[in-house]
Amino acid sequence: MTTKTRTTVDAARVEILRVLAGEERDVLARLEEVTDHLTLVALHLAERQKGRRRKPVLQAIEARGLALELAPVNVAAAHLQEDVVRAVAGMQLARPEASPLDRDLLPDEIYPTPADYEFVDDETGRAWDYMRAPDLAGIAADVLQEQTALLQPALDFSIQFLWKRTGGESGGNAVLGRCVKFSGLSAFFANDEFLIWVAADHARDYGLTRHQVEALLFHELKHVDRSERYTPKTRGHEVEMFIDEVRVYGAWKADLRRMVEQLRLPIGDQP
Asked: Of 58, 228, 239, 246, which is least surrounded by CB within 10 A?
């Protein structure tokens, strides 16, 4: 592709994104300004590829083509110019990414969690459920270096770190984070063995500190484990309990007895 052609394709891509950006009503209004058949077909392909497949938008694109007495816009991509097809097919919506920490935070400082609006793509208006988290990856790397003996299995695998827009609840409790082992189809496409995410909404609502975010990442890293054949697997919690059962019956089973024994040891420094 020549420089001139590449510039033309890039300009077309920007224009396609502009037309399809924002609220549905804005998109429908912009479609009335489109008069080129090739652009309408490219818009149709791009809208379908974005995953939302908004039926009113697709119908409006086809209606616009009919109003201009053009051929139906829902045609095979093979009928399009090669450069435009390549540009639309390669149209990747920008995944949001958290900003790296610009300084070292004190342990008791509130962690700068991504705001809800930062999960929304400015060009398309699409709200993503996840955000790349180089800041969390950096903290996790420090934790792994400092706690090598306690987190040895996690050093054997590649781990992706993400912010999640909403963490949800489990058993009536907020889910602050989770460690997930890629398997099946996700393992086929993933470049990592594990994913660890932290809930941005809960981190904001609870005002988690730098120390608490680090502790949460340590917790999730403890879930990373390996089998006897050194294949990845997740590790469950060491203690399953209710506070009331211990209050009423004491350390009545083995895992509770181990917990009581361990809690006699010095507890880690608190901020």
From this structure: 228
User: In the structure, what pLDDT confidence band is assigned to residue 188 with cuts at 50, 70 and 90?
Assistant: confident
* d(C-alpha 138, C-alpha 20), whole Å: 35
- Residues 220 and 135 both lie in one domain: yes
Give the number of domains in the chain: 3
Distance CA 111, CA 1 (A): 46
Same domain, 58 and 122: no
36, 54, 89 — which closes off a domain? 89
Tell me which residue range forms the domain holding 142. Answer: 116-236
Q: Hunting for tokens 């201009």 — which residue is that?
A: 68
| H-run or E-run covering 233 | strand 232-234
Residue 131 tokens, joined: 């955000």
Cα angle at 176 between 172 and 178, to 5 degrees? 105
pTM (predicted TM-score): 0.65
Residues 269 and 224 grouped into a single domain: no
Higher pLDDT, 5 or 13: 13
pLDDT at 185: 79
Residue closest to 26 by CA, chosen among 129, 127, 128, 124: 124
Other Cβ atoms less than 10 A from the Cβ of 254: the count is 8
Name residue, tokens 């990414």.
Answer: 97
